[in-house]
Design a protein that fits this description.
Blueprint lengths: L5 E7 L4 E7 L10 H8 L7 H12 L4 H11 L7 H13 L3 H14 L4 H13 L3 H14 L4 H11 L1
Antiparallel strand pairs: 1-2
Helix pairs in contact: 2-3, 4-5, 4-6, 5-6, 6-7, 7-8
Length: 162
């Protein structure tokens, strides 16, 4: 049989738990499920960063991204959010039709990395895809402030203005 061929494998050495997820579903993201499954086998597993945020948002709703992130940061004061991991997560949400959730994650990312043209570009794309043209225009303008050579942002602004 052929198909998506997606897999994820994680090992939590301190908890002596290993999780492997194999799927044949095109468009599946097993890496987004592995940490939650691990907590079933290691209830005292302490997750931090994106895995902890992912679990909290599934419980609390993506509209609470900033508040949930503060909860994660309170448990891990030295936490440095990984911009690319957050960005990838936002795009995965966007690609699976979860535009509103994607906007919440990409807005959180842009707020955490205000000087990142890439973070603002991703948010601009999410706004555009979800139909928030004014939000998209504002974010593409921010991209141009941060990186005047951003050709795609310039092109998108011209498309939306005309």
């Amino acid at each position: 049989m052929t198909g998506g061929g997606r897999a994820a494998a994680f090992y939590y050495p301190q908890d002596r738990v290993g999780i492997v997820i194999l799927t044949n579903l095109a468009g599946a993201f097993p890496e987004d499920m592995v940490d939650k499954i691990a907590t079933l086998f290691a209830p005292n597993l302490v997750l931090s960063g994106v895995p902890a945020l992912r679990i909290l948002l599934k419980e609390q709703g993506y509209d609470h991204a900033h508040d949930a992130a503060k909860q994660v940061e309170a448990r891990d004061p030295g936490l440095k959010w990984p911009e690319m991991e957050l960005n990838d997560w936002g795009y995965r949400l966007l690609s699976t039709g979860r535009g509103r959730d994607a906007v919440a994650i990409l807005k959180f990312t842009a707020d955490k990395f205000p000087g990142s043209a890439n973070a603002h570009d991703s948010l601009a794309q999410a706004y555009r895809v979800t139909g928030d043209i004014p939000g998209s225009i504002n974010e593409y303008r921010r991209v141009m402030e941060l990186d005047p050579s951003a050709k795609d942002a310039k092109r998108r602004l011209a498309e939306m203005a005309g």
